[in-house]
Design goal:
The structure holds 2 protein chains of 2 kinds. Chain A is an alpha/beta fold. Chain A is built from 13 helices and 12 strands. In chain A, the strands form 2 sheets. Chain A has an 8-stranded mixed sheet with strand order 6-7-8-3-9-10-12-11, sandwiched between helices. A 4-stranded antiparallel sheet of chain A has the order 2-1-4-5. In chain A, helix 5 crosses helix 6 and helix 5 packs parallel to helix 7. The two termini of chain A are about 35 Å apart. The relative contact order of chain A is 0.13. Chain B is an alpha/beta fold.
């Protein structure tokens, strides 16, 4: 196996959410920090899709932004094709690196400038990176890009409001593809879309991956979608990866109690009338994460060790799991 | 289906929005019934008219929307033409409503206890003390821990899932016979969503209330409902028992909708996709509204509008329904 395209080592991001200085002084409020991402490590092989799943506030979108350098990391490093992105983006080769990685955002109503024509939206990265010499060439490239995502080249003359949600998301994909990137970060690309339209967008993304050998980081809270698109799946909980495994393995034999809970919680259309035992409790406040394993207050397998000691992400039976119960063989 | 006396009966409901560019037909000839204790799911894509159907039933259509034809009966009594004051008394007393966003359906300036007590004393003949006791009881029955303390908290002190429980408690305050729940779990995380669905099912069973559950999530429908209505462009495309609609759909739109959902138990390289998008209300095609996207379209579909008709176990509005034989 060749070297992974993306390699993330002990990545962490801490946000300062302290009250303003005056409140701290007058009301004696302490400083407050959120460990949005807390020591995450993974790699993505070229041409593959890694999906990150988790509930709101688990830090998956923060990971996406860290990977593209939209946030600076507090700790740890991201290596893209062997180069450290923090260093590269600060140096002379920044533009070259940016060309190779692009992002697709969640909300196609917010990520396209309503005052720009589709031509300008999709051509912007082309001009920015000097990939076209003149407007005629740009127009032709935009036409090709629009055709590649199943839109009509004549749509370039329209404004975003003239398109439906699914078509807008295709425009976002066309824009992301403009620089011919190798790596696409997709942050909930279909969660704002209806299911029939979601199917169209997911099919296009898979076709493009096959044709162009794209590498995806796919972020979603929808496990059924993840199962459809991913090769590998990472499950996040409160800023940490709790389980990383191949898709088939994760869905067939989830190891971590949180993964099991998530899988059990999805309503499935083939389970008509199934009685479920919903898991109790909610995601804790990230400002005061629980001690030890952050999942222990909701975990049916928690014991004294889980409350005291934070489990490390260990390789157990070919998958990586951060759980004392699995490590000790208590998980059954 | 043997239903002697349906609790809610909607027949030939038509909702229009007069605009500068002509009248928009948002709901067209909607008919269905819900029996006491039954959960009817209403699914469809954005803009199909599912929320509007719920709003019409609880009498909360946003102007200029209006009911242009048809009638809505609750326990045999016509409620769509009642004066505002009478309708207001029915709303809350006999029909409870749960909306999508629990943060906007609670008043941030009042404690949840005060909001519950207000609802209870409006509809039931109880003293303030009894009402408070009932409020605490309601919070407890919706699974809120330490209800005696929580009753004096403000909405912002609750998490999203807990807030939705408070909204459900509010909807249940006067023991309504019908609950209209509009996307009650959409704003919640999956693990919380499962808890809220279990809660809705439990209260429905315990109180014998009928529920109209509006959602775009087929998984939620599959797990919760007895029957399901599939809406498309302001019309009902198919209605029937939930297992039949999901596993043996008759309408080509339902077939496409089911095929486009990534399944948890099978691997497919590509999802079935329905090309195109739902028409806008300004440009609903003549005949069957689904005809431009339909793989089974024939000449008749473009000219004549199909009515709901029995196909196997479900009813579908289609000239060329997918029959069970064809699926084999």
């Amino acid at each position: 196996m060749s070297a992974p395209l993306v390699e993330v080592r002990d990545l962490a991001k801490v946000f300062d959410v302290s009250p303003p200085w005056l409140n701290r002084v007058v009301e004696r409020k302490p400083r407050a920090f959120v460990h949005a991402v807390d020591g995450v490590s993974f790699e993505i092989q070229r041409g593959k899709t890694l999906a990150l799943v988790g509930e709101s506030g688990c830090g998956k979108s923060t990971v996406a932004r860290l990977l593209l350098g939209l946030y600076g990391a507090t700790r740890g490093a991201v290596r893209f094709d062997g180069e450290d992105i923090a260093q590269t983006l600060a140096g002379a080769k920044a533009l070259k690196l940016r060309r190779r990685m692009q992002m697709i955002f969640q909300d196609p109503y917010a990520s396209l400038n309503p005052r720009w024509k589709v031509l300008d939206i999709v051509a912007e990265p082309l001009h920015e990176h000097g990939l076209v010499k003149n407007d005629v060439e740009a127009k032709q490239r935009v036409g090709e890009l629009l055709s590649s995502v199943g839109l009509n080249p004549a749509d370039a003359a329209k404004f975003p409001h003239q398109f439906s949600g699914g078509q807008r998301q295709r425009i976002s994909i066309a824009r992301a593809l403009a620089t011919q990137p190798e790596f696409l970060v997709c942050d909930e690309p279909t969660s704002a879309l209806d299911v029939s339209v979601q199917a169209q967008v997911l099919n296009i993304m898979k076709d493009l991956q096959r044709e162009r050998g794209l590498t995806y980081l796919f972020i979603s809270h929808n496990l059924a979608v993840v199962r459809h698109v991913a090769d590998q799946v990472g499950v996040m909980y409160l800023g940490r990866l709790v389980e990383v495994a191949d898709k088939a393995e994760l869905f067939a034999r989830p190891r971590h109690p949180y993964t099991r809970m998530l899988l059990d919680a999805i309503p499935d259309i083939h389970m008509t009338g199934r009685a479920r035992t919903p898991v109790q409790g909610e995601v804790p406040n990230p400002l005061q994460p629980p001690s030890g394993c952050s999942f222990h207050p909701r975990c049916p397998l928690a014991n004294a060790r889980c409350k005291a000691e934070r489990p490390a992400l260990l390789e157990i039976q070919g998958v990586r799991v951060a759980c004392h119960a699995v490590e000790e063989g208590r998980a059954g | 289906m043997a239903m002697t006396a349906p609790l809610l009966e909607v027949s030939h409901l038509r909702v229009e929005f007069p605009t500068r560019h002509g009248t928009l037909l948002a709901l067209d000839d909607i008919s269905f019934a819900i029996a006491p204790g039954e959960i009817l799911g209403v699914v469809g894509e954005s803009g199909a008219g599912k929320s509007l159907t719920g709003a019409a039933i609880i009498g909360l259509l946003d102007p200029p929307g209006r009911i242009a034809a048809g009638e809505i009966r609750l326990a045999g009594r016509r409620i769509d033409n009642l004066p505002y004051e009478q309708l207001r008394r029915i709303r809350g007393r006999e029909i409870g409503a749960v909306f999508q966003d629990p943060l906007t359906s609670l008043n941030p300036l009042y404690t949840v206890g005060r909001q519950l007590v207000e609802t209870i004393t409006t509809h039931l003949d109880l003293t303030a003390r009894q009402a408070r006791a009932r409020a605490i009881e309601l919070l407890a029955s919706t699974g809120i821990p330490a209800p005696e303390a929580r009753v004096d908290h403000f909405p912002h002190q609750f998490s999203g899932g807990m807030r939705q429980r408070v909204v459900i408690a509010l909807a249940l305050a006067a023991n309504p016979k019908l609950i209209v729940a509009d996307e009650p779990t959409t704003a919640l995380d999956v693990s919380i969503q499962a808890q809220i669905i279990a809660l809705l099912k439990k209260v429905c069973r315990e109180q014998g209330a009928a529920v109209m559950l509006v959602t775009h999530d087929m998984g939620v429908i599959a797990e919760t409902c007895d029957r399901v209505a599939v809406m498309y462009a302001g019309r009902i495309a198919e209605i029937g028992p939930v297992a039949d609609v999901i596993h043996r759909p008759a309408h080509p739109y339902t077939v496409g909708l089911m095929g486009s959902i990534p399944a948890m138990d099978e691997d497919r390289e590509r999802l079935l996709q329905i090309d195109g998008a739902m028409p806008r209300l300004t440009a609903i095609p003549p005949g069957c509204a689904f005809n431009p996207r339909c793989p089974r379209v024939v000449e008749r579909c473009r000219a004549e509008r199909p009515e709901l008709a029995q196909v196997g176990a479900t009813s579908a509005a289609c000239w060329r329904p997918v029959t069970v034989e064809a699926q084999r």
